[in-house]
Amino acid sequence: MLTYILKRFGQAIPTLLIVITVSFFLMRLAPGGPFDGERQLPPEIEANLMAAYHLDEPLWSQYLRYMGGLLQGDFGPSFKYKDFSVTDLIMQGFPVSLELGAWAIVLALAIGLPLGIIAALKRNSTVDYVVMGIALGGIAVPNFVIAPIMALVFGVMLAWLPAGGWNGGAWANMVLPVIALSIQQIAAIARLTRASMIEVLGSQYIRTARAKGLSEWEVILHHALRPSLLPVISYLGPAIAGIITGSIVIEQIFGLPGIGRYFVQGALNRDYTLVMGVVVFYGVLIVLLNLIVDLLYSVLDPQIRYDD
Amino acid sequence: MRSSKHLLKALALSGGMIASLLLAGPAAARTLNIGVMGELASFDTSQVSGGVWESQVLMDVYEGLLKKGPDGEPLPGMATSWEVSEDGKTYTFHLREGAKWSDGQPVTAEDFVFGWQHLLDPQNASKYAYMLYPVVNAEAVNTGDQPLEQLGIRSLDEGRTFEVSLNAPTPYFLQLMTHYTAYPQPKHLYDEYGRRWIDLANIATNGAFKPVGWVSQSRIDTVKNPEYYDADQVALDGVTFHTTEDRNSAITRFRAGEFDIITDYPSSRYAWLKENLPEATHMAPYLGSYYYVLNQREGRKTADPRVREALNLAVRRDVLSNQIMAGSFAEGLSFVPPGVSHYQPQEMDLGDADYQDRLARAKALMEDAGYTPANPLRVDLRYNTADEHRQIAVAIAAMWRPIGVEVNMVNAEATVHYQTIAQGDFDIARAGWIADYNDAENFLTLLRTGVGNNYGAYSNPEYDELMAQAANTQDLDARERVLEQAEQLAMNDYALIPLLYYVSRNLVDPSIRGWEDNVQDNHPSRWVSFAE
């Protein structure tokens, strides 16, 4: 097992290297630069700026400089948010995104799994249709529609909850964004669970279990549930990485200081170091979570073993 | 059924109670909550990127030689008085006695010398350094051709007097002194902490408020600065700036009572807001011009003055303002918007008001230039991606069709848009200009030959001559006439397509006092209070 984990880390290094290199050069291929804007800068001022950020050097030398910094854990300064380094920005924003994302996933699992199971057990019944109808709606309605409506209803009309803001992570401020974040995940998890549950319920060993005379609940809890979670787990790996790195839509609508916006704003502002910083961060998370997913497989399915 | 209803009610009640408990806070705190539309780039004024939301924060925590009143007009600030030399090129400012940084240290002329040198130091790569280029040697210092010490500023009388030498009389110089590029910086802190003086643990400011907290992308908290010379007159305990890029959610949070002021709202919401929050909804003229650039480089179809005149004639600005933008922009026929001090905007003469007549003239001009609806003029119209810009572009393309213009619309994100038009690779392009200071020169300089922001490359030696003459005219009335002449000339040349004037859009809680609409949309919180 340990050897397997080490091997996976070994494989992750070239993967990340490729991700970083491709993003670095793709970012530079995009037209426009960090200092292009509504007001054109006098050439001498642009020259000062380029020199200050080493953008006047050849690209390969900038690349080496960046990689050198990265090896020392330095993501560089943000071009746009000058009082913060990229590391500061990520370290300040990530806990917020993580907290929101973690709750959203907990909520999504708590609701999505039972819904999926119920739908699978009552397959092709009214219950199934209703649950799956709602799930489909959850996937189809984007959160930039749901979130403002929730803010309006619960923040303004009913005034039960704050319409936005982080407020140091007070629970009242988290309720609406967590729900908004989880709706699509509830839908996705319910659908996945239903599909794999139906498949598992049709398999031989379930028939055997039933033949042994076990009650339906025992069959489901002890024999069907674990294998039917496998697709959900493999979905959750990358999904968790996506959710805990924030959502620009939710952050902007509720005014939350997460890191989701940096993916979009960094790119729009051509804030090269910030974009690279969040991409590297996201890449590492994906690699880590995929590894965890693979390890969970062996826990859930005895047929999967990572022996040498 | 009944029990579930009760349960719901109970839930609602307890939820409401908890929420109101959470929101209430101490009753005495009178902190102003402002929703601003972007994030401050830095408390180091040399590193600011130019967003209007940035000056909002900075003018509350710092103060220049002059400050802004509630109406946006300059008032004595760190300087209580000043003299201007005969030739208009030397300003001597007498600093306020007892003016202090928030750490109790005095504000001296040395702090101004340091702040200005810091801004112009090429190593600091300040985007807005050019604002101080009227100062002797400023440009040379900024390009590294001269050492910082050669900058034409001096601290005299042991830091009680600050003297500035200018290249030419600069009538808007006092206006400039309220801008954040001309703020002092605390030299004693820079000496102690270097670049890290702006860390909240180290920072000291000289304005009415001082920053105490900053969560990036969320909020900046400030409290009243007890060392501020006018602290007795400052009603608020503090100001919190909430970064809220989504303008619709800013409205939601304003309605929820979380914000007392928001500094913008989408034009599409204007009608609704006016109807539902009439006392809070503000809209006022603003020193900004929304226009289309016409590329006049050789070989471009829009280099033909007949085409430029026809394009101008066919635009119905009243439709753009009233129908497309629902009254949230004012129609404009001049480049310089109304409201600029010591200036009368010079409108483009498009003849009679009857649109059909104008259209007929436009058609004749186009035919003259060789274009008809059967053989149309094909042009690219570029705009930066935004709903408003798209709506306006679509409307204008429709207005141009009858005179034989076929528009190909190209939109791009702002970065790409401005880079493309700066390179001159376009026919017609959307642009906007918000004044840095309240002076017509700030707009008109964009049409001078060779200026970076002169995207259309309009060039008329007579115009350049007039602008040079204005720069050397001290008498404000005489200068006004020269500048007006220049604008009239550019309008007669159809140098661009003036379309709309910007307006400022604010939602302000009706219980707020001391907040006034003004053309610069500057509202220092120092003047603001809540009605009891």
Beta-strand content bin of chain B:
15-25%
Contiguous runs where pLDDT drops below 50 for at least 5 residues of chain B = 1-29
The largest chain-to-chain contact, stated as pair and per-chain residue counts, equals: A-B, 58 and 61 residues
Computed Rg of chain A: 24 Å
Number of helices of chain B: 16
Oligomer: heterodimer
What structural class results from the helix and strand content of chain B?
alpha+beta
Tell me, briefly, the overall form of chain A.
Answer: globular
Mass-distribution shape of chain B: globular
Query: Which stretches of chain A are poorly predicted, pLDDT < 50 over at least 5 residues?
Result: none
What's the total number of strands of chain B? 19
pLDDT average of chain A, as an integer? Answer: 88
Helix amount of chain A, in percent? Answer: over 70%
In whole angstroms, how far apart are the ends of chain A? 8 Å
Distance between the termini of chain B: 46 Å
Largest sheet of chain B: 11 strands, mixed
Helix content of chain B: 25-40%
Largest sheet of chain A: none
Q: What count of helical segments of chain A does DSSP give?
A: 12
Structural class of chain A: mainly alpha
What would you note in describing this structure?
The complex is a heterodimer of chains A (308) and B (532). Chain A has helices spanning 2-29, 43-52, 59-71, 86-121, 126-140, 143-157, 171-201, 204-211, 216-244, 248-254, 260-268, 272-300. Chain A has 308 residues and is mainly α. The longest helix of chain A is centred in the middle third of the chain and has 36 residues, at 86-121. The mean pLDDT of chain A is 88. Chain B has 532 residues and is α+β, with helices and mostly antiparallel strands. Chain B is 31% helix and 21% strand. Chain B contains 16 helices and 19 strands. In chain B, the strands form 4 sheets. In chain B, strands 1, 8, 9, 10, 11, 12, 13, 14, 15, 16 and 17 form an 11-stranded mixed beta sheet that branches. Chain B has a 4-stranded antiparallel beta sheet with strand order 4-5-7-6, covered by helices on one side. In chain B, strand 6 and strand 7 (161-165) form a beta hairpin. In chain B, helix 9 (305-313) packs antiparallel against helix 11 and helix 15 (461-471) runs antiparallel to helix 16. Mean pLDDT of chain B is 90; it is low at 1-29. At the A-B interface, helix 2, helix 4, helix 6 and helix 10 of A face helix 1, helix 7, helix 13 and strand 16 of B.
